Amino acid sequence: MIVVSEGIVRIVEVEGPVVAKRVYDIYLRACGIRRMGHELKSTMNKALAHAIRQGRVVHEDEAAKGGLLYSVVRVKGSPPIKLRSRGPRSFEEIPPSELQVVATYLAERHGFSSGSDEHLRAVLECFDLKRLTTQVGTTLLEILDRRFPYGDEFINRIPK
């Protein structure tokens, strides 16, 4: 378990802030494992919880799903939000606070009506995503309704 926890911390150092499921998937793929079953998920959760207890990693339940799997994790002392291109991440692997900051910025700077199709498509475009499916749209609208105090702080530091 300590070895797995070490591996998780190393991935979080590079990828963070990152959705924990992405960390698990990266770790397991590196071990040659393609699917995360119940037992593996439990092991990964225990290893992440160990890193959190040690104070090396912090987590936020940004998706409001409970548990660790969909929480956003980062190394303690690192910024809670890091804007970047999507890269190899899927839409589901982008932290909600990162999506929200981009959405807020676009609405404020470009005058999009918050939550409009045009606004949501502009958010996706920032991450090189094209398809505004019903599920993606619903997820984005839910994210826009949430408040992350560190998201507001991040937006307020951007020069106007």
Quick rundown:
The chain is mostly helical and 160 residues long. 54% of the residues lie in helices and 6% in strands.
CATH topology of the largest domain: Arc Repressor Mutant, subunit A
Going across the major beta sheet, what is the strand order? 1-3-2
Low-confidence blocks of residues: none
SSE pattern, N- to C-terminal: HEHHEEHHHH
Describe the structure.
This protein is mainly α and 160 residues long. The chain has two domains: 2-75, Orthogonal Bundle (Arc Repressor Mutant, subunit A); 91-157, no CATH class. Helices cover 54% and strands 6% of the residues. The protein is built from seven helices and three strands, in the order αβααββαααα. The protein has a three-stranded antiparallel beta sheet with strand order 1-3-2.
What's the structural blueprint in terms of helices and strands?
Elements: H1 2-15, E1 18-19, H2 20-30, H3 38-53, E2 57-60, E3 72-75, H4 96-110, H5 117-126, H6 134-145, H7 149-157
Antiparallel strand pairs: 1-3, 2-3
Helix pairs in contact: 1-2, 1-3, 4-5, 4-7
